[in-house]
Fold this protein.
Amino acid sequence: MILVVLIVALLAGCATAAVPPASDPGISVTGTGRVSLAPDIVTVDIGAEARAPQLADATAEVDRRMRDVLARVKTPGVDVRTIGYSIEPIAESRQPPGDAGSRIVGYRATNIVQIKTRDVAGVGRLVDAAVAAGANLVRSLRFGLNTPERAEGEARRLAVHDAAARAQQLAAASGVKLGRLLSVTESSSPIRPVGVMMAAVPVEAGQLDVTVVVQARYAIDP
């Protein structure tokens, strides 16, 4: 009987020791840093599409158009690379009664290049020149930063300072003393275009917001 009581007591002691201690109190905050600046690089996808009953005619037409386009846009400071080339058959839209198959009535050829330039103010003229030379596809105009690291570093510094200020305000409002920084993690650092328009040229670049968000946790001093 005594042995059973001792075993039960030991097991109870082990169970008590296994309970994890309560986590230390702290203050968790989110800090945001944002830097707005003008873009210094712009990319735009420009291409040509041609349709013809014969495949050779479609490819010849799109190749002719793109040669003229490249001759107009390839200037110093402009980088051009092909990002898409496709050939698709065109099926007859209306099938004769009783015809189970699709009859090919033509072909569509498409050639798209990505153009990158640092002449942000002149991108409207560049698009105009490409269209005048024969481009009939203009897609996805994007403004950006050639070297975003400096802006991201400044936004990151502002985010950490913002988190510290928020933590200090929470501590003061709660009547406690803010302690040391326990942890800080970065959520993201996206570059988001603001005020970008491309309904028609001229194109307004607007500003870019470089935003960094951090999660910080501070101790509470006794």
Summary: The radius of gyration is 32 Å.
